[in-house]
Amino acid sequence: MSSTLTDDLLGAAQAGDTEALNRIYTELSPRILGYLTARGSEDPEALTQDVFLALFSRLPSITGGEQGLRTFAFSMAHARHVDETRRRTRRPALFSYDPSVDHRTTASAESSALGNLTAEGALGHLRSLNSDQSDVLALRIVADLPLDEVARVLGKSTGAVKQLQRRGLHKLKQLLVDKDSSNHGA
């Protein structure tokens, strides 16, 4: 591909000739865009425009003729790409959550505990909790009562029932982890 850039064209552009500026842009922009695209830029068109804004503002200071212009233009393109890459690594990529597409789930402590228990084992583990925790979990899980009804049945505040449930589930989880560790270690 032959170049239409010449030292005379650069001199005319440095003197403010708009036709010369247009020819420099026409000659270099596809190559800079190609370079930025090949390097994996997120927005190579925008970076190409940034390169030319900076290039044209510094045009009077460019030395080395046509070769100096090319070197300077691609040095700027490279620097813009490096800056973009650094910005990308500093800011995490954001993705919207769509439950109809993303089927990853994490089981709640309650369902995890229930999934690992047989009926007999569940009763044994419930008996290892203090009586308030055992009552709350039995009413929430076995009787399937909501928090406010469990609170009324036990004569406690809803906040107290939540705390008892949380502590009871935590203790059940710990019992299951300890049981699992002893089964795998034996």
Question: How would you characterize this protein structure?
Answer:
- The chain has 186 residues and is an all-alpha fold.
- It folds into two domains: 7-90, RNA polymerase sigma factor, region 2, helix turn helix motif (Rna Polymerase Sigma Factor, Chain: A, Orthogonal Bundle); 109-185, Winged helix-like DNA-binding domain superfamily/Winged helix DNA-binding domain (Arc Repressor Mutant, subunit A, Orthogonal Bundle), CATH 1.10.10.
- The chain contains nine helices and no strands.
- It starts with 6 loop residues before the first helix and ends with a helix.
- The model has no long low-confidence stretch (mean pLDDT 82).
Write the layout of secondary structure elements.
Blueprint: H1 7-14, H2 18-38, H3 44-58, H4 65-90, H5 109-115, H6 119-128, H7 131-142, H8 147-154, H9 158-185
Helix pairs in contact: 1-2, 1-4, 2-3, 2-4, 3-4, 5-9, 7-8, 7-9, 8-9
How would you briefly describe this protein structure?
The chain is an all-alpha fold and 186 residues long.
